[in-house]
Amino acid sequence: MRSTRNLKKRQNGVAFLFLSPWLIGFTLLTLGPILGSLYLSFTDYDLFSKPEWTGLDNYARLMGGDPRYLQSLKVTLGYVLFSVPLKLGFALFIALILNRGLRGLGFYRSVFYLPSLLGGSVAVALMWRQIFSYDGIINHFLWTYLGYDAPSWITNPDYALGTLVLLAAWQFGAPMVIFLAGLKQIPQDMYDAAAIDGARPVQQFFFVTIPLLTPIIFFNFVMQTIGAFQAFTPSYIISDGTGGPADSTLFYTLYLYEQAFTNFEMGYASAIAWVLVAIIAAATSVSFLTAKYWVHYGDEG
Amino acid sequence: MTDMTDTTTLRAEPAIRPVRPRARLWMHAFLILFGIVMLYPLVWLAVSSFKPSGIIFSDTSIIPRHFEWENYARGWAGVAAPFKTFFLNSFVISGLAVIGNCLSCSFVAYAFARLDFSFKKPLFALMLMTIMLPVHATLIPQYVLFNAFGWINTILPIVTPKFLAVEAFFIFLMIQFIRGIPRELDEAAAIDGAGPIRIYFAVILPLMSPALVTTAVFSFLWTYEDFLSPLIYLTSIENYVVPQGLRLLQAARGSSSWGPMLAMSLLSLVPMFIVFFVFQRKLIDGIATTGLKG
Q1: Average pLDDT, chain A
Q2: How far apart are CA A191 and CA A41, in angstroms?
């Protein structure tokens, strides 16, 4: 049955009326600014005087002339490289246990999910800072039970980034919920068939569970990587707004913020922002390109 | 895991084999222990907020000897402005964000899901692309624009984008939802003479309340905990939101301010706890079905 003619014909007038918030928002707050920041990235601009065209100067400065920028890049790459696998590892591990049909699944799921709900807040970052400070609760345990006189994790450049990685890992709840949903999608038949073929539980895990879960692993990996590159609040709060000690927690976004809104180097900051967009786009593309080698989609047979 | 099943029998084992009682006990023990470790920081925060500043670090017991309300009183009085102001500002901004996202995104989603118009495909593709766009791509020119409008130190730069459907993720979520509403309902209304506007208000909007609730919950949480936008746009203390108020307490220093800072940190999490407990299912389903970042 065809739908009534009334609904079939073009409804441009009324449709664009409904679309109008997005059309305005997209033009004024997304497309315009994207082009604007591309332009600004080739200029010297301090917000108060007119932007001055400087060609590729800003990008040249990024490539070698700015050690703090390179430091922020290094710190952020380290953070992404360690926090994403750690977080996904926890998420998958706990999801697998929770998927064994235990009682109280809803309760456990809520408990493990809660930190990831609160984790992005300033309050939690402040709490983390206290817990890992020299006289914090972690060191108290280490001293009382292990007799280990631990350093101040927050103010030691060797460890400060580690506390941020742990804070990210602590928030494994959201990807865990997604893994759990994915595990429930794996059809019983697959396991039955594997069992009939004589697959032991360990083999079932490696040849049924993991392959069928790869689309979810891939999705979580991409989303968490994109998110990790953009992390800001924890670095700002834990380093007291400085990226310290010794720039060891100078996240990319924190340096961008500093250049744009503390030094008002808006042109340079735009170049920094564009490189971030390019890095994220590249990381995502590489993930998608490698996906065909390890991600199995059900319909491939 | 040890396995005693006799593999010579051809009876297929059930997929996720029922875990044997002893193993199940171990799993529960592990999950409970791990859960305690996970929640310990939050418990520590709650307990410490009731301890006098001087003994927060020396006294590590989990049961406070007596409740010290002083931290809350001093924290609430705030630095330079009372915390009441920060909470009010936060609630106004988050409330407007909820209204803005629910209204604007549902309009746009309705157009994409149900109406036929020129350039629909390319516009839809553009909309999807903006979901993945890092905020930093637009941050600086947006600031320049809002500065030109004279909007710095007002809530407008934070709230206006929500009324212009900039958080395209919610549009996508709602499109998916509307597609699940049977078209026959629209058609019945159309036969009764309703136009697209009437259909939106009388048929679609009432039926999409589950998607609106999900949008409202996540809009509230994300706006409430957002730190970067207020940091950039809200410059005078009487306009600060809660995260900035906490930052003030952190900057105030002095070991005597630990107590008030922890007290206000805990208090700032209370609205999020409430949302969590009331909308638990909604949150978890929202993440599980759409991959929303938590």
Answers
A1: 91
A2: 55
